[in-house]
Fold each of these.
Amino acid sequence: MIATGGPGLSSNTDMHSDPKAIKALLVEIENLSMKLGRRAAFMEVCGTHTHAVAAAGLRRRLPENVRLVSGPGCPVCVTPIEYLDRAIALAALPDVTVCSFGDMLRVPSSSATLEEARADGHSIEIVYSPRDALQFAEKHPDRRVVFLAVGFETTVPTIAAALAEAETLGIKNFLILPGNKVMPPPMQALAGDPELRVEGFLLPGHVSVITGWETFLFLADEHGMSGAVVGFAPADVLRGIAELLRQLIEERHEVVNLYNRVVDARGNITARVFVDRFFEPTTVVWRGFGAIPGSGLRLRPEWRHRDASLIEVELPEPVEPSGCRCGDVLRGQIEPPECPLFAKSCTPDSAVGACMVSSEGACAAWYRHERFVIGSRQ
Ligand code: SF4
């Protein structure tokens, strides 16, 4: 069954930041959970939700029988180790500078992090946008400048814009290492996984701004699962949990948009057309999931002269960090404290796996905000 709009409390008001509204929603969730009368688990798909949920302490304020499980929506976390290996190999070339967002620098590769490689003399720059990398390329025409293109639907338009500007200005030494991913295919994989332990999804608000919320209708249509597109304030998240509980009680399975102050049905078509000019779908590997058809973006043939993955480099045999269970965390199979390394050998200051690096990583979010209540909800 399919919903076509945003039922429930209006999300066009200030309620998402009102403490009274938050309290009322918690009471509503408590009542709904009692009415449901059994356990229920939902997945917050997006890493920004994971961070928001942890920072607001929402997990521990939910009723005992309602659990929130983190999903694969942290771009740094799902980037496979081979990508990091290639980035380091590129940065070792004498005429290449690798430019990256800062949160990629501490992610372990098979041998070292980008940060360690930089300390060893590899040419690696931190940038805050693809355009920063483009400007670096313009100032250093003697170097090939490779931007690490990691991120979901929300990030790709800015990369396409940098590529367009490079073409317009004739900046030939600006390249990207394609690593962008899109969310619907892994959601298909999750929803079709017989081992999935959740009954509904809090769907990513930022991604939906670009894709439109209707892109997730397949969850209800093809898998009979519930989904709610929500924003990032505590009341947004709680409103989504209440909606998912209501659907379970009423035995409905619908996808609804509760973030209609910024998300509409069809998304940002202009941005998608712009992205399509440069990128086409391809099969890529997600940490924890393996290869997922159509889940990545590669440069179209006419732009391959900007594709740094075509530069020949020697790569090591990929080696995942020993004992790290990031893959299980990203598929919602375990919660971070169930990893034996959590808060022992793996901490944000000494991360063993990618999920402990980015603030959007589930392990980092749990470590920073929830580790003192570990066990209270297991
Ligand atoms: S706690 Fe560390 S080692 Fe364990 S799954 Fe998370 S990132 Fe990997």
Note: The domain at 77-182+269-310 is CATH 3.40.50.11740 (Rossmann fold).
Amino acid sequence: MNTLLNRRQWLKAAGATLAATALAPRLSLRADPLPAPSAPAAAPGLVQLSWNENPFGPSPSAQRAMQVAVGRSCRYPDAEEEELLRLIAAREGCPTSQIVLGNGSGEILDAAGFHFGYEKGEIIAANPSYMQLVVAAEKAGGAAVRIPLNARLEHDLPAMAAAVGPRTSLVYIVNPNNPTGTVCEAAELREFVRTVSARVPVFIDEAYLECTDDFAGRTCAGLATSGHNVVVARTFSKIFGMAGCRLGYAVLPEKLAASLRARMTGSLSLTTIMAGIASLGDTAYVTATRAKLKAGREALMAQARALGREYTAAQGNFAFIKTGMPVQDFVKKMRAEGVIVGRPFPPLLEWARITVGLPEEMETCHRALRKVLG
Ligand SMILES: Cc1ncc(COP(=O)(O)O)c(C=O)c1O
């Protein structure tokens, strides 16, 4: 059965409130029934579990919003972008001047890398960790100081604090870390951020934090909104399953927000913005997805345990497992079984990162793991 949606009905369904004058309905569209969520194959017969995407999304309300947006795409997204910004600011409990939107959080990482790497700025980051900000800083003439993870493959916060020196322009923390999935202990991280940000800015990349068991207890956004020299980045690519839409944001001090905005070159599409607004209103979807991702990563850990392999206490939408062989060999063997996983993350060259996929994809993955590691 077809559903007739206008913008007002759609926004109501999405749980968003808005000023009627600012966003008066402009067009009604016929929205066809939604297809069941599916994860298009990377190649025929292959399961893609190497990019930390979330195949449970986008939520049905976000998909519906995108269908509506397609028909309105002759218009620039003006009031809609303001509405998204307003909703995000309300979510974070800060003024809109403390939010920067990006084409994925990747655009924000690039802007921050260029900003803090400029004039030989030195970025302190963990090793291994997510490299996009560091690479941008290096392109801008900056340098990286890479601090090895501790024995539990978590950020070594004391060592990172000790590394801060006169040339440090930024400390970059990824929580949970990619590729290891490990989280920083919440109280220790807060203390670290309070102390270190009194000397240099601290950037916390919380791309996967909404997938964890205790998002509210672990987020550092409150420090960014309460006057500390802290940036927190979030993405719609992970918990909201919108990697292909490209939407992320940062919460940060107003002055720094203005500096980063000056380096942003992207501009969000109406489709992405409307999907973002709908996603923010769909809390039931987020709760259900979080549970599915947790079940998926715990099943991978149980599999590793059953096969006698080490694994980390990962909390994102992926697991990190010691394969006992060079990871390139493991990747080849898994691919022969129809599953794309991992890539080398030096210096942890026997470890593989495996993303949680749809249940049927995980069946293929578990079968492959038993064959390759059994
Ligand atoms: C830790 C981390 N931060 C940021 C990103 C960038 O994500 P996006 O640009 O899709 O928001 C990723 C992508 O995988 C990531 O793993």
Note: Residues 113 and 137 are 4 Å apart (CA to CA).
